[in-house]
Design brief:
The chain is mostly beta strands. 12% of the residues lie in helices and 36% in strands.
Length: 207
């Protein structure tokens, strides 16, 4: 059994922890289709707001840089000077600082080399409701799901672009229905609010 002093310290640390955790973990409900099939409309995602930058709890002052985004991270970000994006949204990190990124018929090339993909059986995704606009093709792209229909999206091609030392290229997993870096361009890490660490399957699914 803990001594009174140790019990007091333990309770104090627990209290501090419970007060700080909500400042760094946030839940968001998905309202758009750009993350299909990874996340469906209505799903809830949990974001770690301290994944890349640790800020003072409930403040905007950054204490230190915790880590850098990796390819494949699903991130929460906000671009304040884009009137089309009025709040936080979610995209996949595809291109990293200093890399050349190109998109050819939905195939992503990094420094001239295509990211590895594996065709998946679209029938295995029949749990996605028909109201969700999945493409005719579903693939595993370097460790995460993507979907698209060949020839459908006007953004299925993107001219090669060299990213600056602080820029990232972002795409939605639903390549046919995503407003991302193919349109608004590369973004700075300063726009990142955090990293998605969990998806709660609360949206509609076909049983």
């Amino acid at each position: 059994m803990l001594a009174p002093a140790k019990r007091y310290v333990a309770l104090l640390l627990l209290g501090v922890g419970l007060s700080v955790v909500p400042a760094y973990l946030h839940a968001y409900r998905i309202g758009g289709a750009s993350g299909i099939p990874t996340v469906l409309v209505g799903d809830t995602i949990i974001v770690n707001n301290a994944a890349y930058s640790v800020r003072l709890p409930y403040a905007t002052t950054r204490i230190f840089r915790a880590s850098t985004p990796k390819r494949g991270d699903l991130v929460c970000l906000q671009i304040l000077d884009n009137p089309r994006l009025k709040g936080p949204f979610f995209k996949r990190v595809v291109g990293l600082p200093g890399e050349e990124v190109e998109v050819r018929e939905n195939r992503v090339l990094i420094n001239g080399r295509a990211l590895p993909v594996k065709r998946l059986n679209a029938a295995d995704f029949a749990w996605a409701p028909r109201t969700h606009p999945m493409g005719s093709i579903v693939e595993d792209e370097d460790g995460h799901w993507i979907t698209y229909t060949p020839g459908r999206s006007p953004q299925r091609n993107h001219t090669a672009i060299r990213l600056a030392s602080d820029q990232y290229f972002l795409l939605g997993d639903n390549r046919d229905d995503s407003y991302d870096s193919r349109e608004f361009g590369p973004v700075s890490v300063d726009c990142f609010l955090g990293k998605v660490i969990s998806v709660l399957k609360t949206g509609e699914r076909v049983k």
